[in-house]
DNA sequence: GTTATGACCGTAA
DNA sequence: TTTACGGCCATAA
């Protein structure tokens, strides 16, 4: 039995599970902490695929297990809040965890920033 | 198979 | 300083 199918991917180990990887990292985000798409992407080995991380979030719509509200862009801005229900749901969730958010921007972002690579 | 989009990031003007 | 554009990877149509 050889590897018929399509010879694995051009790269070793990355079975279209890119999304699942992002989900796992996001789910690993501790309470009261936040991270950025680039940090997650970098942790996955694709720092240049930060957009894919956000894309994965878009597909996460419906996965409550994934605290996407803890994922923000490099500036600590809630760029994805538009994808949440309502208008301030994401902000409410963050404030609920003790994260101060003003004008869609996280206060002391660098202070509560959680780097996945730092833990992993 | 190609085209277009995307919750980004980084650099240039 | 701010603003604008391109790149880069992956998914969906």
UniProtKB/TrEMBL annotation:
InterPro entries linked to this entry: ATL_DNA_repair, MethylDNA_cys_MeTrfase_DNA-bd, MethylDNA_cys_MeTrfase_DNAb, WH-like_DNA-bd_sf
Origin: domain of life: Bacteria
Domain Methylated-DNA-[protein]-cysteine S-methyltransferase DNA binding as annotated: residue spans: 17-99
Single GO molecular function: methyltransferase activity
GO biological process: DNA repair; methylation
CDD domains: ATase
Keywords: DNA damage, Methyltransferase, Transferase
Protein name: Methylated-DNA--protein-cysteine methyltransferase
């Amino acid at each position: 039995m050889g590897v018929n199918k399509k010879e694995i991917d051009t790269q070793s180990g990355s079975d279209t599970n890119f999304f699942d990887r992002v989900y796992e990292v996001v789910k690993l985000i501790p309470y009261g902490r936040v991270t950025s798409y680039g940090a997650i992407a970098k942790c996955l080995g694709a720092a240049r695929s930060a957009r894919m991380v956000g894309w994965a979030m878009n597909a996460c719509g419906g996965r409550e297990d994934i605290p996407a509200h803890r994922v923000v862009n490099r500036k600590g801005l809630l760029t994805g809040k538009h994808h949440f229900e309502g208008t301030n749901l994401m902000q409410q969730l963050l404030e609920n965890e003790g994260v101060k958010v003003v004008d869609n921007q996280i206060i002391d972002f660098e202070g509560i920033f959680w780097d996945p690579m730092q833990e992993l």
